[in-house]
Design goal:
single chain, 409 residues, Butyryl-Coa Dehydrogenase, subunit A, domain 1, 3 domains, 4-stranded mixed sheet, 4-stranded antiparallel sheet, globular
Length: 409
């Protein structure tokens, strides 16, 4: 019995088109490093070039409307495009662009027509790279507790404060930033969102060298930074969603971050691990052992279940179906299953899987990075406990009125 999902004739034609185009625009000089901390500026620029080529076709952000530089593709074709990028070890976008991935859908919902026309095409075409600036030294899971201020002064907002755990290496063109616009205002009713050009005077970016967190499919999210604002003057028309309406705007951003639109980037390290386990060395493969083989099957099933959660959320959001707790359910599942899979890998193959021993040399340290990432990934994008709280509120547990899912389109 075959449970595999098969392409229709039309989808098969699109897959061939996507594969041929991706092979055309990806140069042989592209390197696949296990840990994106090691990404050189030259390798980063290769990924930006790939992004711009995809953007010209509307395939960098294929779910976005064509009028703003997206592809407006069907849910199935978006999934196929992600599949074909994953097949060669890249994500979509092929570089870290968290502000674009979460900011662009938020601007689509909350921005004015002018905001959409100004901010979305450069993101969708790969002309700019955008970080998201949320967490601060005293505010992470409690996002409403941020302290960075943006005080109106004529045609500008003057921004002062500090953001933490930001972005990746090699900088950004702009940052999608939540700020306090009414320091004396009521909590949750004193926040706003600014798109801040990162070349403005008064901005300092400092790498947090002791921290290295995860990145999907070679997206290049490794180094994290602290960003300092010292009397930075940001044009007032860069405020999106209305002054002091930022918490409502944040509901869409956080819905995307928690997985409400699905995150279709696959974790290629799992496939690489399974393939190496099947390879014979000195006439014997790890998968020849019945106990190891059973664990490998369980590992694969676990990864496929997580992928199906992502596909479900992608379809629900793309086709405007009713949603509730599904985003946080997927996020919780992904965090916990990633940790479990990392532990399974060591249990199946032993500690040498975390080294560049001759058997594991072909994966170039990817399994060690996967396990390290599975630990750090428990925290970003809301912790596992926060995801449980959100699910409980969406289900109406504890006699509460059911909380509604945020708008995504």
């Amino acid at each position: 019995m075959n449970f595999a999902i098969e392409d229709s004739a039309e989808q098969g034609t699109f897959r061939k088109e996507a594969r041929a185009f991706i092979e055309e625009i990806v140069p042989s000089t592209l390197e696949h490093m296990a840990d994106p901390v090691d990404m050189s500026y030259e390798q980063y620029q290769i990924r930006r070039d790939i992004g711009r080529a995809l953007g010209e076709r509307g395939w960098l952000y294929p779910s976005m409307p064509k009028e703003y530089g997206g592809g407006d593709l069907s849910a199935e074709n978006v999934a196929i495009l992600h599949d074909e990028m994953t097949r060669i070890g890249l994500a979509l976008p092929p570089y870290y662009d968290a502000g674009g991935r979460m900011g662009a859908p938020t601007i689509l919902v909350w921005g004015t027509d002018e905001h959409k026309k100004r901010f979305l095409p450069p993101i969708c075409k790969g002309l700019v790279r955008t970080w998201q600036l949320l967490s601060e030294p005293g505010a992470g899971s409690d996002l409403a507790g941020i302290k960075t201020t943006a005080i109106r002064d004529g045609n500008h907002y003057v921004v002062n404060g500090q953001k933490m755990y930001v972005g990746s290496s090699h900088g950004a063109d702009q940052s999608w930033t939540i700020v306090v616009t009414d320091p004396k205002g009521e909590r949750h009713k004193n926040l706003s969102w600014l798109m801040i050009p990162m070349d403005l005077p008064g901005i300092t970016v400092t790498p947090m060298d002791l921290l290295a967190t995860g990145g999907e499919g070679g997206s290049g999210c490794g180094v994290k930074n602290a960003v300092f604002f010292d009397n930075v003057r940001v044009p007032a028309d860069n405020l999106v969603g209305g002054e002091n309406n930022g918490w409502k705007v944040a509901t869409t951003h956080l819905e995307v971050e928690h997985g409400g639109m699905g995150r279709l980037a696959d974790r290629r390290a799992i496939t690489d691990f399974i393939n190496v386990c099947k390879e014979k060395h000195d006439g014997w493969a790890i998968a020849d052992d019945p106990d190891a083989r059973e664990e490998i099957v369980n590992l694969y099933i676990e990864s496929e279940i997580t992928k199906l959660f992502a596909l479900r959320n992608h379809w629900l959001s793309h086709t405007n179906q009713p949603r509730s707790y599904e985003g946080s359910q997927y996020s919780l599942r992904r965090k916990l299953s990633g940790l479990d899979i990392g532990e399974k890998m060591v249990r199946i193959a032993g500690p040498l899987v975390l080294t560049k021993d001759k058997r594991w040399a072909p994966v170039n340290g990817a399994i060690e990075y996967f396990q390290r990432d599975s630990i750090t990934a428990l925290h970003p994008g809301a912790t596992t406990d926060i995801q449980r709280v959100i699910m409980a509120r969406r289900l109406g547990i504890g006699g509460r009125e059911k909380e509604k899912a945020a708008n995504l389109r």
